[in-house]
Design brief:
This protein has about 140 residues and is mainly α. A two-stranded antiparallel ribbon has the order 1-2. The protein is built from 4 helices and 2 strands, in the order H-H-H-E-E-H. The chain has one domain. The protein has helices at about 1-10, 45-60, 65-90, 105-110; strands at about 90-95, 95-100.
């Protein structure tokens, strides 16, 4: 390792051998197979195999799973939001009859179907925690 480092530092830039740039014609490494193959010389089965291989490689190279999942999720949210807005809040006219959603529907959707409404704000769930602060009475039996 030390000898290689000493040899490389001894050469100057002018003394370094000039190599032509690496191109298709000056490449010293020859490929094992010619690509793309000559389809006129291949049988039908070999052509089909090459087409399948090429299609599979293109699909793998172009696959973007996170991007596709994000796009699908954005499409779903957009469609559900637009349909929900049309059903619950918009005033439309169908075949000459006007459709006006009732205020109760808009109010129930706006308060998440009544869970967070003003009337139910302080109601307690019977299955919930007991928030009673009164101390327990001792049992007379002991």
């Amino acid at each position: 390792m030390l000898s290689t480092l000493a040899r490389r530092t001894a050469f100057t830039a002018a003394a370094a051998p000039k190599r032509p740039p690496l191109t298709v014609f000056t490449n010293p490494y020859q490929p094992k197979k010619v690509w793309p193959p000559d389809y006129a010389q291949l049988s039908f089965q070999e052509q089909l195999r090459f087409e399948k291989k090429y299609k599979r490689r293109v699909m793998l190279a172009c696959a973007r799973p996170r991007w596709d999942k994000g796009v699908k999720l954005a499409q779903l949210v957009t469609v559900v939001g637009v349909v929900g807005w049309l059903v619950f809040f918009s005033e439309l006219e169908f075949y000459g009859k006007s459709y006006k959603p009732s205020e109760e529907i808009g109010k129930s959707v706006g308060t998440i179907f009544g869970i967070f409404s003003e009337e139910n704000r302080y109601d307690r769930n019977p299955d919930g925690l007991n928030t009673n602060t009164e101390p327990r009475k001792p049992n007379p039996r002991g």
